[in-house]
Amino acid sequence: MRTAKPVRFFASVMFGAALCAAGAVNAAKISISCGAVGQEYEFCKTGSEAWAKKTGNEINLVSTPNSATERLALYQQLLAAGAPDIDVFQIDVVWPGTLANHFIDLAPFAKDAVKTHFAASIQNNTVDGKLVAMPWFIDAGLLYYRKDLLEKHGAKPPQTWQELTDIAKKIQDAERAAGNDKMWGFVWQGRAYEGLTCNALEWVASYNGGTVVDKDGKITINNPQAVAALTTAGGWVKNISPEGVLNYTEEEARGVFQSGNAVFMRNWPYAWSLAQGPESAIKGKIGVSALPKGGADGRSAATLGGWQLSVSKYSKNKELAADLVMYLTSAEEQKRRAVKGAYNPTIESLYKDSEILAAAPFMGELYDTFVNAVARPSTVTGAKYNQVSNEFWNAVYAVLSGKAKADASLAQLEASLKRMSRGGKW
Fold first, then answer.
1. Mean pLDDT throughout 169-184?
2. What domain count does the chain have?
3. CA atoms within 13 A on the CB side of 420
4. Are residues 214 and 231 in the same domain?
5. Pair 188, 248: CB distance under 8 Å
6. How far apart are CA 248 and CA 244, in angstroms?
7. CA distance 171 to 152
8. Element (H or E) spanning 136, and its range?
9. Contacts of 166 (CB under 8 A, 6+ apart)
């Protein structure tokens, strides 16, 4: 993993409400760290700008690396130094346990608002009785497909990974023969980073191979079902997926799919609004479904993702920062993001909102996929989760790149995790 660059790496965009001379004296400047995958940065900017206009304060918007792995390393560097440079941090769903000591308790500011969010999201963000983050949007892995190409070639959305492999190969070869030599069957996130952990957990869970470490702390990854899952995925590379997929994150996969050069894509919900945008080559030609099962006895499994907002305990303006967090995670703001950007709300009532369902129908159709998504083993492994995930994605990457067989790679992974866990005690 590359070492993240220090604060001067950031490209900051300054904006704020126009303030009169008297008001400007009392205005505070709140810095918020936002991701930039897809439209994340723009939606963070417009939401924060609205808060700034409403309150008469200023915002310093800070962009961070797209890779969650690189972003976490950067956050850890800043927080370990007690730097007050960032007031509000956008954090991944698996980070509360790792970063909790650096954030304030948001419960006094949230009050009854916590009751409107999914209970699981609030529970995920509560560490040692302290609400260290407010849920902002949730994610779950989805299968995107070219419904026009499936119809053209007499295929239906695949129910199993083997069906996906067969359909992808058939349509890929036919479209290449018809003149599109850039066509691929399936694109996904294969780079050695947290995104690969998400993809691989879906494959393993869909084959009933568990979740790497179970809820009791037992290491379960070395089993025949997990071996079958990774062997299947390894067979996609250079067959229905380009070799370059081993360096794809979310945006590289979306770029290939949205340009019209892939039949299937695994990605998060945010890709929907972009693929349906006015400049998209495949606007109106996309379908979305749950990810395939591992086989007749398998199940559809989507990794739980999502992002939260936390306030640094090193902030010089904690109350204002908390106010910004509550504004950005409110029902009104979550609805705006859902309608215009297909970001899944964390507020349950919004899944019955007619405007949201009209803009992103899959939110209603695949509701069960979101509420039953598979969690990564971050709670049970606590502060060691990042190390666990790193070991897992490297073991998976070795299989995908042809450097190791699945059974040998998972046996080695099991041994590494046992040393890390000290006999099952994380």
1. 98
2. 2
3. 22
4. yes
5. yes
6. 7
7. 9
8. strand 134-140
9. none
Provide the pLDDT confidence category of residue 1 given band limits of 50, 70 and 90: very low
Which of 371, 386, 411 terminates a domain? The answer is 371
Tokens 């504004």 found at: 327
Burial status of residue 163 (CB atoms within 10 A of its CB: 0-12, 13-18, 19 or more): middle
Check pLDDT > 60 for residue 260: yes
Residue 180 and residue 69 in one domain = no
Question: Could you say which DSSP state residue 245 is in?
Answer: G
Confidence of residue 6 (pLDDT cuts 50, 70, 90): very low
Tell me how far apart the alpha carbons of residues 396 and 246 are, in angstroms, rounded to a whole number.
11
Taking CA atoms, 325 is separated from 89, 106, 310, 396, in Å, by: 10, 9, 7, 36
Chain mean pLDDT for the chain: 93
Residue 333: CB atoms within 10 A of its CB come to 20
In a domain, 55, yes or no: yes
Per-residue model confidence as pLDDT tens digits over 26-73: 789 999 999 989 999 999 999 999 999 999 999 999 989 988 899 999
